[in-house]
Amino acid sequence: MIIKNGLIVNSEGSFTGDIFIENGLIKSIKPEIYKENCKIVNAEGRLVLPGGVDVHTHMDLDLGEYRAVDDFYTGTVAASFGGTTTIVDHIAFGPKECSLNYMIDKYHELVEGNSIIDYSFHGVIQHVNENILKEMEEIAKRGITSFKIYMTYDNRLNDEDILRVLIKAKELGVVIAVHAENHGAIQYLRNYYASFKSSKPIYHALSRPVATEVEAINRMIYLSEIAGFPHLYFVHVSTKKGLDEIVRARKNGASNVYCETCTQYLTLTEKCYKEDIEGFKYIMAPPLRKQEDIEALWKGIASDQVDVIATDHCPFFIEEKMNGKFDFRIVPGGVPGVEERVEIVLTEGIKRGISINKLVDKLSKRPAEIYGLYPRKGTIEIGADADITILDKREKIINIDNRHSRVDYTPYDGFKVNYVVEKVIQRGNILIDNGKLIAKNGKGVFLKRTKI
After folding, report:
1. pTM as predicted
2. Judging by DSSP bridges, how do beta strands 388-397 and 416-426 pair with one another?
């Protein structure tokens, strides 16, 4: 295959040229390439980007009473329509006291024959003992070089166990991704607002104030310092003050600290919770914040203080979300977003004067680097997998009728985007062509990742 005459966009720069693909790899990139017996993809007047890398999804997430409505087929179909060709999925908690391998093996079964794009997993640590620490080393050798911990929810870790994990991560050179919120403060506030005998979506936001994120980020950074600064990755940072905490720590000598935010924290505000019924659709943790937080995060992207833009894709049906009208505390947390990310981020970022190269860095290259996928993924360069997203510069209005997730709503309904995914290629195979699904399920491969 030859992709001809497109504007090839990497994080380092852009130029018009051709890309020659053979055996699933990029073999050459030149101003002009002529070869016989090749499929020609005409990309003239189009943007040619590396396939998106979304390192924060929750496909087929089982919460017990609720289960995310996208499995690894429907979720990766939605991802591919949105220009994403690789995901690293945050897996669910397993049974009490289960091994790390238990849930990883389960997820290999869930994804087998389903994913149409390439994938990996983050291990999840829900309790700590010597066996778990040994398993971290075994699993890293299997190509899963990152682990998720939580500072809230039922399977949260206390500070002592967090420190044990961080010390082990430093020894192994793996990444620890952390959901940073202060559990005690949140639980008190949730019960306080529930005592009003009224359930309003805004109580969800009020029960998880900015300080609960900021304190937890601060505490994790100091625990990381004690452990010698292993690779520490903050997922879904939602606030200006949370980002300020990370920036301040870096200036004071903290190393190996990475910051992720998500599409929803760059576009939506807590005003979404003011609607007493519709507001339940937007319940997620952390909650949506204020416009000043949105603008601070965009500035963080422009200045490279924010490393990655992901999605935290975790969709539930409207009917399930609406159970919160009786008690906001029981709403399954999460929203869809894996399809919208690339188009919305390009539109909103360029509108703010951020270069497309910088945005591609946050959508593709930087997540691939941090999570051991680069240079195979996240870039258009010789030797990389031929994962390519071709976009047309034209307007489109996002609505549920042009979405491809199983979920029955999009939080971005009515958003106008200025860049539209037209064709998606993975390892030289066309997945999406002018709004049509070409790929067959099960063609995605598991990616064994290296250490950063």
Report:
1. 0.98
2. antiparallel
